[in-house]
Design goal:
Number of strands: 12
Low-confidence stretches: 375-387
Number of domains: 1
Strand order of the largest sheet: 5-4-6-1-9-11-2-12
Shape: globular
Largest sheet: 8 strands, mixed
Helix content: 40-55%
Radius of gyration: 22 Å
Number of helices: 16
Order of helices and strands: HHEHHHEEHEHHEHEEHEHEEEEHHHHH
Distance between the termini: 62 Å
Length: about 375
């Protein structure tokens, strides 16, 4: 005979025991002796003032670094526009990867700093996980978006987790890339900085045609520009006397993604072999600003910290990057991904409108996620101050 609600009772007890065990393990981790490796990592992390994370979308490691690594395969071929937006959707692939000279900023940073060879992707967004960790630990943060796009897709895709009231009470701010560079010059950035690629307007940054579901809507030159601007901001922070750990990674589905580690103590051309994933930046945050011993003990966190803990290079040995030229494209129509964002926000289609008009409507319909709204300066929950 059925046992009534006995099954539910047993499930409740299992969850309770699991939660109690997790609490007990956390307590032991906090009070137990710290292994030498973790102790050294904690000391190195304590010197880091800023964790900066840039996450692209839709490119796997082989496409970006396969040519640099000498993997077998052919480079994209054709005219410049075709190469930098390859591979096209539904077209015959003209190659499998970028040549190193096609991505000069990525290539220079890979030679000058460290990169991870086994950063796996499973569809999760590193920025969303990191942002939740910042909120949960009350760590001040800034979310950087493209000035023209003006709206955060990280906040848009999870309205249940970031309703207006929650965002207004979070210890963070929304910035444009230009704001990022200005504040970096004075060291005036919060501990955690997240940078979104542009994704709602053409051309998107570094996404593949398959990721976007559109023929040719992404341009690797835009990604090179953004990486240059973010790296330049990190360099400015170092000049202002702030220690930076910059992670450049990507979101993808079931593949290893290109990942760079830029830090003063990172060895030139160093390779990180530990397995990393979308949760690694959030674990780094918890290890550094929440004194989370379990996060610090994570093998990926330890490997990243150790890779960033070599002899500190002077600013003169931080190379200068040059921005790539990316031609602007006339954009009269609204891209399908912008239409989808409007619908997710409960806004009806408006036939014949321009992309700029659609962006205005989206920003008005989702002010908590918009840089061009009163919510763009988010108040510090602890002091009610504008940050």
């Amino acid at each position: 005979m059925p046992d009534g609600d006995g099954g539910a009772r047993r499930a409740f007890l299992r969850r309770s025991f699991g939660e109690a065990a997790a609490v007990a393990l956390d307590a032991v981790a906090r009070v137990g002796p710290q292994p030498p490796r973790e102790k050294a990592a904690a000391a190195s992390l304590a010197a880091i003032d800023h964790l900066v994370v840039l996450s692209f979308a839709g490119r796997d490691r082989v496409q970006v670094f396969g040519g640099l690594d000498g993997d077998p395969g052919a480079e994209f071929s054709g005219g410049t526009d075709e190469v930098m937006t390859a591979p096209a959707l539904g077209a015959e692939a003209l190659g499998e990867r970028f040549a190193p000279e096609m991505l000069p900023v990525h290539t220079l940073l890979a030679h000058s700093f460290a990169r991870a060879d086994r950063w796996s992707s499973d569809g999760r967004d590193p920025l969303a996980i990191l942002l939740r960790a910042a909120r949960d630990t009350s760590t001040p943060w800034a979310l950087v978006v493209d000035g023209r796009q003006g709206v955060s897709t990280t906040l848009l895709v999870d309205p249940g987790g970031w309703p207006p009231g929650v965002v207004a009470d979070a210890a963070g701010s929304l910035l444009t890339v230009a704001d990022l560079q200005r504040r970096a010059a004075t060291g005036g950035l919060p501990p955690v900085v997240l940078i979104e690629p542009r994704s709602l307007i053409d051309p998107a940054d570094f996404a593949s045609a398959r990721e976007l579901g559109e023929p040719r809507s992404a341009d690797a030159r835009r990604a090179e520009q953004l990486l240059h601007e973010v790296y330049d901001a990190a360099r400015s922070l170092e000049r202002a006397g702030r220690r930076v750990l910059l992670l450049v990674t990507a979101r993808g589905e079931g593949a290893e993604v290109p990942a760079l580690l830029v830090a003063s103590g990172a060895g030139a051309g160093a390779r990180i072999d530990a397995r990393l994933d979308a949760a690694t930046p959030a674990l780094l945050l918890r290890a550094r600003w929440d004194a989370d011993r379990r996060a610090l003990a994570d093998e990926g966190v330890l490997a990243l910290v150790e890779a960033a803990s070599g002899p500190q290079r002077p600013l003169s040995r931080w190379p200068r990057t040059a921005p790539a030229f990316a031609p602007t494209r006339p954009e009269a129509a609204v891209p399908p991904r912008l239409t989808a964002a409007l619908r997710r926000s409960g806004l009806a289609d408006s036939p014949g409108e321009t992309a700029d008009h659609a962006l205005v409507r989206l920003r008005a319909g989702a002010p908590w996620a918009s840089i061009h709204s009163d919510e763009a300066a988010i108040r510090d929950a602890r002091g009610g101050r504008e940050r």
